[in-house]
Every structure is written in C-alpha cells, then in structure tokens.
Amino acid sequence: MKTKINYFAIITFFTIAISLRYLSNKTTILDNVNSEFIKVILQAVGPAIGAIVAFLIFKIKPKLTLKGNYKNLIIPFILYWIFPIILILTVEYFTKGTFSIIPIFAILIYGLLEEIGWRGFLQHELRSLPKLLNIIIVAILWFIWHLNFEMSSGNILFFGILVLASWGIGKVADSTQSFLAVSAFHSLNNFFPEMNTTKIIILLVLVGTWVILLIDRKKRNQKKEASL
C-alpha cells in the first residue's frame, strides 16, 4: 500500500526552511553575531527547524536517527566524523602547519542541520513517489533554498550536483539510517571548496573507504537475513 504524502507538512517544512534562510543570508540580522561558527550554524538551521516543526505538528515519526541502524552511536561517529576529521587535519598540518578543527566541525554540523530536513524529512515524506521524481523534487527545493537564482553555467552545474547529491546521499540514508553518515557525505564538497591534487586524493580516500565499508556492511546484513 502506498503511503499518502502529507503536502501540508511539506509546505510547512519548506516555508520555515526558506524563511529562515532568507533571514540569515539576505538580511542584516546576523551582522551583530561575532562568532563565525554561530553564523555558519544559523545559516543552515532552517531545514532542521522546519523538519522538527513538521514532525511535531503532523505527528510524523522520523526514520533517520544519529545512530541509524548501527548497534551504538560511537560506530557511525568514529566512521563518518572522527575519521575524516583526523585525515583532513593531518594533511592540513603537514601542508600548512595549522589545525582548523572548529571550521571542520562547523561544516559537519552545517551538513547535519540541512540533512535533518532534506533526507530526514523531505526525502522520506516523498518516498511513495517514483525514485527519480523524488530525487528531482528534493533537488529543486534544495536549489531554491539556496536563494541563488542567477542564470549562469555555474548555477546549472550546481543544480546538477544537487541532483547527484540527492541520489547519492539518499542511498547513504537508505543504507545507514544515520544522520551522522548523511551529514558527512553532504559535507564533502564543503570540506574542499577549492580542489587541488592533495584534496582530491583525500576526497577519494574518504569516499572509497566509506563506500567499501557500506558495501561490506550491506553484504553482512544480507547474509545475516539469509541465515534467519
């Protein structure tokens, strides 16, 4: 039986998400906030608050959690947050002699707040739609939320990235059910805004490791289910 889509919940979610995005990015409301860390977090809080309000008002049970379908919280935390932080900081130290741990945590938390909305709420709420249509709708609303409507090749490319990200991060969400996992994959592009050879290698190591672990875990789960 197909699950009925709650369009009022989606409208509520997106209205809150884009309104808070407008306030944080298009007005001077954050000008007096001295902490760059807080500013970054507030710019991403809209999807999270929109999703939480929709969950509460429409009595929708979230499918994703921090722990996901892992046995405990520490496993996804180490795998998807601690591991990339250590790798990135190690390379940064040997190439620049600095540690940017606060900006890296800000990027991960930024991704987490977004993903509570996009994968935690919207993708799941649209689950009864054909997969491609689900992906396109999520990507369109995600693109609009960024409030950058300039008709340029860069924006067209950005929309294409959001479509691919909606598909890829959606796969991670389905596989892990973990906000820590999806936020880590979400944050990959923000970790490396300007790519060079070293950063590409780090990115490939991170993605390769995560994909191998996800595939291995899926195979073990399938064997476990087959033995029951």
TrEMBL record:
Domain CAAX prenyl protease 2/Lysostaphin resistance protein A-like: 101-192
Molecular-function annotations in GO: endopeptidase activity; metallopeptidase activity
InterPro entries registered for this protein in UniProt: MmRce1-like, Rce1/LyrA-like_dom
Transmembrane segments: 7-25, 37-58, 70-91, 97-116, 128-145, 151-169, 198-215
KW Membrane (keyword) present: yes
A single BP term in Gene Ontology: CAAX-box protein maturation
Keyword Transmembrane on entry: yes
Keyword field: Hydrolase, Membrane, Metalloprotease, Protease, Transmembrane, Transmembrane helix
Pfam assignment, any one: Rce1-like
Protein name in UniProt: CPBP family intramembrane metalloprotease
Lineage of the organism: Bacteria, Pseudomonadati, Bacteroidota, Flavobacteriia, Flavobacteriales
